[in-house]
């Protein structure tokens, strides 16, 4: 029984090796090897949390692109999906994804028109979606977008594209952080916080932003990370004692958020 | 299939290994070569898109060979889930089936599914006696889940159990073999006090030691401790049955709903109402 089995295996492996050579040829001719190599490279660049899902989307996008060419709407949503794969703090993965998004948005456009970069309209659309996906309301995002958007007819080169995307991503994080800070100083979840406390926190935020010099937007977030709970506690201690707490004027969440946003946006260079 | 956030600090090989991506890529290419006609019809890119989408959705294990359905935890979980979806009606009807019938059902979904594994699952339900007895769908599927999803763990634990029964030192090096389950049953029939089982706390210590260096999936040590702390002595099949019934263990695997929701099948109910 064992001998028969072994002989069977041997026969199989002989015809198998003949088939293997034919298979290899088939794979390289049909472009499968190149396809898989490209997919693996993308995967390793992005390091998504769900690799199987990533590969499913990757091939699905490729195949629908091949079939009917990418529509603009599709390009923007695909670009957004790529940008969602890695947080901006994972700098090289994030930059890779920005590069992929940029290429997606310049595809399908005749060479002479795409020479300068992404069309302004698409770029602005992308930034708008990025802000809303980051949880920013239209009113919070609007002042920032006014600074970084470009005109519909303009062409946005890669470096500018990258800066814009990074700025929006960092801003979304920054606003989230500000919301947490507000929650920390509000004495109860349903009551607005003391105005004086809010001012104290806002000035600590401003100080932190000011110490980050240089144009790299992401440094602003590192700076705001210096606002540890200890610093907030210190700010609170420097403000009026508990007894007077309940009588003073208050600041609601939206006003705080707008003020924090203004501090950040003031440091963003307007695109000319 | 979610991973932790320090996936960026892994090397390429580590990341690929942790995600089992190469297993799926290899299988996709192998399948492609075996069914060339399909790709010439629809295109290679579309083929890969469909392959990975079906892996993601858990549909990829249907009618595949046993070696494939057991190769990754995700595949095992998908298979258990598929089995449940396909046959939960049996549970609804209240039918009791024999081990051989469950085996046939499994082989409908996986042609070379080994009967030995179904036998082992049946032993858990019937506490090893009279494996030609009938079992309910609910009892069978939860026991089957433990046996199949944690196959390597069950094997290793059976070796530990046998060592403890035969009085060997709990610090013996564990080497699982495929004959270990048979050894358990012969030992049980020879020794009259095998029914007493082993001391729970020593058993627990040994299993925890196993889990510290175990390379395969195992149930949470929290669940294991909970089970073994509830009685002074425990039998092998008693332990496995407790694992099968443990809600936390079931949720960790993620293939089956709670026992109370096991037989709920709204689409089938709608269909039946139309008739």
UniProtKB/TrEMBL annotation, chain A:
It holds the Pfam family TPGS1_C. Coiled coil: none annotated. It comes from the Eukaryota. Transmembrane segments: none annotated. One of its GO terms (molecular function) is microtubule binding. Residues 72-269 form the Tubulin polyglutamylase complex subunit 1-like C-terminal domain. SUPFAM superfamilies: Dimerization-anchoring domain of cAMP-dependent PK regulatory subunit. This is Tubulin polyglutamylase complex subunit 1-like. The gene is LOC113112252.
Automatic annotation (TrEMBL), chain B:
CDD domains: DD_C11orf49. The keyword Cytoplasm applies. GO terms for cellular component: centriolar satellite; microtubule. It is found in: Cytoplasm, Cytoskeleton, Microtubule organizing center, Centrosome, Centriolar satellite. Keywords: Cytoplasm, Cytoskeleton, Microtubule, Phosphoprotein. Transmembrane segments: none annotated. InterPro entries: CSTPP1. The keyword Nucleotide-binding does not apply. Its main location: cytoplasm. Belongs to the CSTPP1 family. Regulator of the tubulin polyglutamylase complex (TPGC) that controls cytoskeletal organization, nuclear shape, and cilium disassembly by balancing microtubule and actin assembly. Regulates the assembly and stability of the TPGC and thereby modulates polyglutamylation of the microtubule, which antagonizes MAP4 binding. This is Centriolar satellite-associated tubulin polyglutamylase complex regulator 1.
